[in-house]
Amino acid sequence: MSQNPHENIRIGDVEVGPNAEPYIIAEMSGNHDGSLEKALDIVRMAAEQGAHAIKLQTYTADTITIDVKTDDFKISSGHELWADRYLYDLYEEAHTPWEWHEPIFALAKELGIHAFSSPFDPTAVDFLEQFDVPAYKIASSEIVDLPLIRHAASKGKPIIISTGMASLGEINAAVEAARSVGNDKIVVLACTANYPADPSESNLRGIPVMRDALGTLIGYSDHTMGIGAAVASVALGAVLVEKHVTLSREGGGVDSAFSSEPEELNQLVSQSKVAWQCLGEPRIGARAQEKEGLRFRRSLYVVEDVRAGDVVTAENVRSIRPANGLAPDTFSTLEGRTFTRDAAKGTPMSWELV
């Protein structure tokens, strides 16, 4: 049975979907800067600021690449963050040691926040299974690794697939890879895989297009600065937002330059929830909380004492607040007619008065 993109799924004990507040993932990435204590502090920070989950990346330099110093393995000179770095050296610096996962996941559980990871090869999936993770995240560069997606999806957990750089055909192939092993708990993340990403390249109008084309829930993996793009994504249907986080951008870490600091994460949690609440229902008309306001719309009232036989004029009948009299547009019909009875100032106009 195909997933219904208008119904919720569950990540652990949390409802995720259009009928639930946005699920916020705080991505630690390499911002632990090689310190387990700093990694644990990031978990504490994410929990304190209201994120639903902390996410790691599970790889070693040897599981994600090989130690070769040729141009194929070298980041371009013009790269804003990692110019001329060799992949092996970068990943050696940025990876989260596998022995750290147990204390990180234990702390997250203690604090009541989900913890899961992006596995970058099948051995990482098998390693993460021991922690009973509530979901798996497939990174943008791994979207073409369909065997990895099938292996992760076979574990029966929700699969979150990031789509930076991917064509619709590649995204669909990844989704179908997950479905091929019986997993239809899929969230596809709109994403611009640039670090930091220019907001003008976010193309968030693609979110409802992806939802309808793929038949999945859609989220947003945000690499822009600030929270504007993430909040806008919720307005367009994103049910989940992933954001890199750091204790301090000045504190280092390979991704810290484009990561959110604690107060920004707090604002993301609160403002994305507000954006979701604002969506409401696809209906036009007065809201329940506008009931009092309806009483004080304009209507026609007698604005000075009149006697039977007096003529209705613009001086003795006007459009004022509140709304108990005839509609303002009926004045042209009333004007020039005569009152049939006395009426005191403040009497709502009715047809019985003329």
TrEMBL record:
**Domain (AFP-like) ranges:** 299-354
Stretches that traverse the bilayer: none
Check the record and name the Pfam families matching this protein.
NeuB, SAF
Keyword set, alphabetical order: Transferase
Q: Known CDD domains for this protein?
A: SAF_NeuB_like
EC identifiers of the protein: 2.5.1.97
- Asked if Transmembrane helix is a keyword of the record, the answer is no
Drop me one GO molecular function for this one: transferase activity
Give the highest taxon in the source lineage: Bacteria
Q: Does the keyword Calcium apply?
A: no
For this protein, the record's NCBIfam families field holds:
PseI
Protein name as annotated: Pseudaminic acid synthase
- Please give the organism: Dermacoccus abyssi
